[in-house]
């Protein structure tokens, strides 16, 4: 069983730190800043063994240079080697490797960026997914490089994971995402409950993450564009029939961008 600790960075990033209880070895995911990691390592007498990168944006890789000393394994997408720090392990769709005794599977999930990947600890109980900026609680990433169809396809892949999968996005965007989601589907009881929960968590200055995939499927509009009520709202907004889910997703993503 892995222990996963959120290390806040910048205004709303999370660097996820993974360790085996009783061991001094650890890995981190998307260290946009080095200082939060260095501070935690020193306080808890831990040794950084490796770094997982989901994509190339500076708020995800900015701390790598200061952290990636000799002996630290740096993992990232083979398609993005030209804009990532020098990798010691290049991975792609279907790649498998070991982290702290657990098998990690790589999923290519383009949309936010073309070379975006996610890391799935499928055999862990419960499964763990480190998805960077692809899937957020009640939201998804902006389309900086990919298309709406690519992002929709990526998210639908993630929807097929076991419902108990714990989702670890890289940002604390939950409250803002829920405000928008409530505009899309105002009568969703599951969303109302999540809003109440999230307000309590943030008032207590605790993270709203991770979140179970099964919960996201009940209120995240970006995972629910085939829902008849959501589809009706999107068609009203677009003033046209939207026969394909990917077209409905594009309308929803554009609406969020304008919100």
UniProtKB/TrEMBL annotation:
Give cofactor(s), names only.
Zn(2+)
| Pathway this chain belongs to | Secondary metabolite metabolism; methylglyoxal degradation; (R)-lactate from methylglyoxal: step 2/2
- What catalytic activity does the UniProt entry give for this protein? an S-(2-hydroxyacyl)glutathione + H2O = a 2-hydroxy carboxylate + glutathione + H(+)
Q: How is the cofactor bound?
A: Binds 2 Zn(2+) ions per subunit.
Q: Where is the Metallo-beta-lactamase domain?
A: 12-171
The GO biological-process annotations, alphabetized, read as: methylglyoxal catabolic process to D-lactate via S-lactoyl-glutathione
Which Enzyme Commission number(s) are on file for it? 3.1.2.6
Keywords attached to this Swiss-Prot or TrEMBL record, sorted alphabetically, are: Hydrolase, Metal-binding, Zinc
The residues listed in the UniProt record as binding Zn(2+) 1, with positions renumbered to this chain, are 55, 57, 112, 133
Sites binding Zn(2+) 2 sit at 59-60, 133, 171
GO MF terms on file? hydroxyacylglutathione hydrolase activity; metal ion binding
Family the UniProt entry places it in: Belongs to the metallo-beta-lactamase superfamily. Glyoxalase II family.
Outline what the protein does: Thiolesterase that catalyzes the hydrolysis of S-D-lactoyl-glutathione to form glutathione and D-lactic acid.
Q: What is this protein called?
A: Hydroxyacylglutathione hydrolase
Q: What is the lineage of its organism?
A: Bacteria, Pseudomonadati, Pseudomonadota, Gammaproteobacteria, Oceanospirillales
């Amino acid at each position: 069983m892995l222990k996963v600790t959120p290390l806040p960075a910048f205004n709303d990033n999370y660097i996820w730190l993974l360790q085996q209880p009783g061991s001094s070895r650890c890995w981190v995911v998307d260290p946009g800043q080095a200082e939060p990691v260095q501070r935690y390592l020193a306080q808890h007498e831990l040794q950084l063994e490796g770094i997982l990168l989901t994509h190339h944006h500076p708020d995800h890789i900015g701390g790598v240079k200061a952290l990636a000393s000799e002996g630290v394994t740096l993992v990232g997408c083979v398609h993005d080697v030209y804009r990532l720090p020098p990798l010691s392990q290049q991975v792609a769709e279907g790649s498998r490797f070991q982290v702290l005794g657990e098998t990690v599977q790589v999923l290519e999930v383009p949309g936010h960026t073309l070379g975006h990947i996610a890391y799935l600890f499928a055999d862990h109980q419960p499964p763990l997914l480190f998805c960077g900026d692809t899937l957020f609680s009640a939201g998804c990433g902006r389309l900086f490089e990919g298309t709406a169809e690519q992002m929709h396809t990526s998210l639908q892949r993630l929807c097929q994971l076991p419902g108990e999968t714990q989702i670890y996005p890289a940002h604390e965007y939950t409250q803002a995402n829920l405000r928008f989601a409530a505009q899309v589907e105002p009568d969703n009881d599951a969303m109302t409950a999540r809003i109440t929960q999230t307000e309590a968590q943030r008032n207590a200055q605790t993270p709203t993450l991770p979140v179970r995939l099964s919960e996201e499927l009940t209120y995240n509009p970006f995972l629910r564009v085939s829902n008849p009520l959501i589809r009706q709202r999107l068609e009203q907004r677009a003033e046209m029939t939207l026969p394909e889910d990917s077209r409905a997703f594009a309308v929803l993503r554009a609406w969020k961008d304008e919100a």
